[in-house]
């Protein structure tokens, strides 16, 4: 695997375009985000807020009903659905994300299994989605076999778990991505400063946006929402992954221009997504 280039503004301009005047919400993608739990409502809030701010026509959140009220207060545009109801025709969604703050348990395993078996568009897997896959061989096989285009978004800690707790401390990001590709055969985003996006066994790209202010709880959940929204709006999985990390970093950069790096929080990144998209489409 080699780094084929940088993810820069010029490239992102070519995949995120100004909206046609006659567009309607049905054209803008309906996405499902499986996220959150009683202890981690925030993760579901950050991901769904980012997706709606990134232009999705409709965002549905599948979560524990104990957190419906906080979700509906923080992101009233999103629709809540209870765990267990995911069977309601997954094919109606243009993209599905799973993982942020959902916990690692049998229910997470079962939902992942259902999505990987029944859905054939883009699936973004993050956080506890990745931790659950790391725990169950059966899911690891399914990731390889699924007809869906899977995008995994691990940070280094999650990458280590996905590689069976191998010692990866001395590996470069490209080596980590390469091992993950070999094991899972899907698109891999290794997060951190200069996030790496591996789109095939040969090709990887480095992001050029982002700043240390983004080292704060929940900023990865925002990334999940952005990539999911872009894929749901029709970007090819590879473009959604690459443009997604760029938009995420640019939103963080615009937020840091205003707020500085210390006080920046995940919701700020989501709140600045509209400004990043405005800049990119003008
Ligand atoms: N408010 C909320 O509801 C939040 C919930 N979250 C959820 O909390 C759960 C646990 O996720 P966490 O990621 O916090 O915990 P993890 O235990 O998965 O990862 C944290 C550890 O990973 C390592 N790590 C991460 N990035 C690294 C990097 N770039 N370089 C080197 N090491 C790195 C560090 O050792 C770090 O302590 C997930 O379900 C997540 O979605 C988080 O997203 C934070 C916010
Ligand atoms: N120093 C940094 N520079 C640029 N981006 C960063 C930096 N630190 C973290 N990020 C970005 O913030 C996000 C953190 O994601 P993650 O570790 O999953 O956090 P969380 O699980 O708390 O949401 C990633 O997209 C990562 O690339
Ligand atoms: Mg995370």
- Uncertain stretches: none
Radius of gyration: 17 Å
Bound small-molecule species: ligand NAX, adenosine-5'-diphosphate, magnesium ion
What is the chain-wise order of helices and strands? EHEHEHEEHEHHEHHEEEHHH
Describe the main β-sheet briefly: 10 strands, mixed
Q: Which fold does the CATH topology refer to?
A: UDP-N-acetylmuramoyl-L-alanine:D-glutamate ligase
Give the count of structural domains: 1
Secondary structure category: alpha/beta
**CATH superfamily descriptor:** Ribokinase
Determine the mean pLDDT.
Answer: 97
**Count of helical segments?**
11
Indicate the percent of residues in helices.
Answer: 40-55%
Just give the CATH class: Alpha Beta
Explain what this protein looks like in three dimensions.
With 282 residues, this protein is of the alpha/beta class. The chain has a single domain (2-281), classed as Ribokinase (UDP-N-acetylmuramoyl-L-alanine:D-glutamate ligase), CATH 3.40.1190.20. It contains eleven helices and ten strands. It has a ten-stranded mixed beta sheet, with helices on both faces. Helix 2 links the parallel strand 2 (30-34) and strand 3. The longest helix is centred in the C-terminal third of the chain and has 23 residues, at 237-259. Magnesium ion binds next to loops.
Helix-strand blueprint:
Elements: E1 2-7, H1 9-15, E2 30-34, H2 41-53, E3 58-63, H3 68-74, E4 79-82, E5 95-98, H4 106-118, E6 122-125, H5 127-135, H6 137-145, E7 149-152, H7 156-162, H8 173-184, E8 187-190, E9 196-198, E10 203-207, H9 219-232, H10 237-259, H11 266-281
Parallel strand pairs: 1-10, 2-3, 2-5, 3-4, 5-6, 6-7, 7-8
Antiparallel strand pairs: 8-9, 9-10
Helix pairs in contact: 1-10, 2-9, 2-11, 4-6, 5-6, 5-7, 9-10, 9-11, 10-11
The structure holds ligand NAX, adenosine-5'-diphosphate and magnesium ion.
Protein name: ADP-dependent (S)-NAD(P)H-hydrate dehydratase
Binding site for AMP: 191-195, 220
Cofactor: Mg(2+)
């Amino acid at each position: 695997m080699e780094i084929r280039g940088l993810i820069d503004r010029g490239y992102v301009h070519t995949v995120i375009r100004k909206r046609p005047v006659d567009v309607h919400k049905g054209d803008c993608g309906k996405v499902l985000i499986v996220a959150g739990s009683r202890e981690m409502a925030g993760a579901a809030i950050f991901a769904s807020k980012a997706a709606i701010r990134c232009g999705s026509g409709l965002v549905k959140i599948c979560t524990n009903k104990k957190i419906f009220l906080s979700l509906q207060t923080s992101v009233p545009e999103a629709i809540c659905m209870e765990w267990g109801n995911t069977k309601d025709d997954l094919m109606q969604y243009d993209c599905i994300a799973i993982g942020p703050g959902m916990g690692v348990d049998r229910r997470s395993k079962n939902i992942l299994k259902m999505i990987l078996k029944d859905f054939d568009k883009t699936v973004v897997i993050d956080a506890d989605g990745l931790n659950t896959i790391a725990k169950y061989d059966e899911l690891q096989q399914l990731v390889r076999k699924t007809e869906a285009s899977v995008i995994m978004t691990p940070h280094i800690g999650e990458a280590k778990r996905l590689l069976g707790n191998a010692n990866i401390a001395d590996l470069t990001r490209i080596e980590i991505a390469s091992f993950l590709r070999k094991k899972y055969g899907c698109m891999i985003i290794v997060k951190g400063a200069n996030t790496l996006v591996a789109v095939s066994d040969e090709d990887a790209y480095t992001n050029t946006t982002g700043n240390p202010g983004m080292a704060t709880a929940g900023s990865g959940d925002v990334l999940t929402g952005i990539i999911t929204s872009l894929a749901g709006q029709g970007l090819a999985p590879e473009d959604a992954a690459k443009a997604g990390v760029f938009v995420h970093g640019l939103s963080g950069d615009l937020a840091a221009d205003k707020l500085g790096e210390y006080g920046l929080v995940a919701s700020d990144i989501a709140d600045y997504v509209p400004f990043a998209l405005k800049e990119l489409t003008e």
